From TrEMBL:
Protein's UniProt name: Uncharacterized protein
Originating species: Larkinella arboricola
Domain of life: Bacteria
Organism lineage string: Bacteria, Pseudomonadati, Bacteroidota, Cytophagia, Cytophagales
Amino acid sequence: MKPVIPIYLLVVTLFLVECKTSRPTTGKAVHALSASIDTQNFLSCCDFGTKMPDGNPVWCEASAVLYDNGTVFFANDKDMPAGLSPVMTKPWKSLADSTARPTPLLAEAFRTARKYEDFASNKEYVFLTTAFDRVKPGSSDWDSYNTILYWKKGQEANPQVLAPERGAKTSVAFRDQLGKVLAQNRPAFPNGMPYFKVEGLAVMDTLLLFGIREEGEKFDKFDYRVRVVAVPFFVEKTGSSERIVLKNNWRIVADFDPSTVTELPKPLALSSLEYDRNRNLFWMLTSIESNGQLDAYVWTIKPEDLLNNRPPTLLRDANGQPVHFNHKAEDLTFPDAHHVLVIHDDDRTNTTVGTQTRQPNQAAYTVLRINP
């Protein structure tokens, strides 16, 4: 005669088996964080009516943002006229005050690099990268699009260029390493990825991570991506000076396809990558700009998961709906333990915030409240 298993033991056994074998899916995973939109507004890169030398208006296409000790650093991915800079600062408390002008950072390195995309910082240094999305063979005319700047916190008046050689004016020498690692296992590109675009930058203590949004044959023939390339670095000290040096072991650590979350629009691609030291968490933005549609979504992932090519978790609100923006979100930063500041680069689209319509000198931003 077979023994009879009591019903409560059967229920407990099935529960334990389910807990052991189930795996959360990328989009529906239960995460400790949820978020809601706290505030939305516009910031100004310059006075209304400011014009370029050719007479066209200056557009504020803010693409990079960083909060540090009460100050917001932000960067425009377009050139600015004389006397201004594409990199500027403003007190956090007056970010939305259009009567308070931002302070331009006028060091030559800030004014000569072109198409800024992302800030990053660790305990000691601030980093700022351009897009690396163009180079002109046989000429240095476009080398400035391939630049990574860094400076010790509080010393933004003296930015340095991250490069293999001392005294370099750009970081174009790193383009080969990035192109080669992105072309691994891609037989169509035996000499390296011809075209790619960096839109994310994150830094841990001794690790720099690049977020790749686009890659392919050329600027008008590419695929949207969410890929992350990591390279370790160290600080080289010589007498009273020091500089950051990248090591040679570049590698792809993450290659994620957002279309696996079927409820989201397509094609989404990476537009920011940041490391949150307080939570030991990476944050990622993915955005879409297609046929006039602008939208963006937020993801989080633990370092051990990102560095081992595991999928991130989609950030949702308290009702389980994806947190998103009707803007092309470009970068994010952490003004305090409970909020995330997201800056938007809507190109030249006259997007709205409430009843306000964006003007050329403005960029929209959103502040999220994080609910653990």
